[in-house]
Design goal:
With 198 residues, the chain is an alpha+beta fold. The protein folds into three domains: 39 residues, no CATH class; 79 residues, Immunoglobulin-like, CATH 2.60.40; 61 residues, no CATH class. Helix content is 22%, strand content 24%. The strands form three sheets. A four-stranded antiparallel sheet has the order 3-2-5-6, with no helix packed on it. The longest helix has 21 residues. The chain is elongated, with a radius of gyration of 31 Å. The chain starts with 18 loop residues before the first helix and ends with a helix.
């Protein structure tokens, strides 16, 4: 789309703005908007992982020259990220989320308009949940939910506890106060066990 020739009209202070002058301004803004819309492309990206909330995923598009374009995250019920204002040329779309490998897709924009792609993220591994202060029963459940195998259990003194030991017995030991000399707070002196009353 070609822009129509713009005729600049000026007025002197105190002169009224005629209806025609105002209409010319509106026509110019409308032509500019249509020109931009006709020369830019909109790309919609769908993350196909069912277990992922798409709002948590960061999607962007970059190319060899120029600043990257950040996608607008989906607004429910939509699940698509929207990349707007992509000019013609080769782009690389990137999807990122903690705990997953960064996914990329090559896209070639040729014409104005809209198009869509789908991307899947591969999980890189299980994250260790925060177990500080948890009972053994709660720690077991958190590890199981995270898919982390429980292979060894130590009490606060460093003694091994059988992972199959009953929760009641293990929890009574595992939830005792920890000795600060175990590396948690090395600046605080450790008192003998007899003074701690354990």
């Amino acid at each position: 789309m070609d822009l129509k020739q713009f005729i600049k009209k000026t007025v002197k202070p105190g002169e009224p703005l005629t209806a025609q002058g105002w209409n010319d301004v509106l026509d110019g803004v409308d032509q500019l908007y249509q020109f931009i819309a006709a020369t830019r492309h909109t790309l919609r990206v769908t993350i196909t992982n069912a277990e992922i909330d798409p709002e948590r995923v960061r999607v962007s598009a970059g190319r060899a020259a120029g600043a990257p374009v950040e996608a607008v995250r989906p607004i429910p019920p939509s699940k698509q990220h929207t990349l707007s204002g992509l000019e013609a040329g080769a782009w690389t779309v990137t999807a990122e989320l903690a705990g997953y490998q960064t996914a990329t897709a090559a896209v070639n924009i040729a014409d104005p308009g809209e198009s869509s792609i789908e991307m899947a993220l591969a999980k890189v591994g299980n994250f260790m949940p925060d177990l500080f202060g948890a009972t053994l029963a709660d720690a077991r459940k958190a590890l199981a939910d995270a898919g982390v195998p429980l292979v060894r259990v130590l009490d606060f003194t460093g003694r091994d506890l059988p992972p199959a030991q009953s929760d009641a017995q293990s929890d009574s030991t595992a939830t005792r106060p920890r000795c600060w000399c175990n590396g948690l707070r090395p600046r605080r002196p450790c008192r003998p066990a007899a003074e701690r009353g354990w």
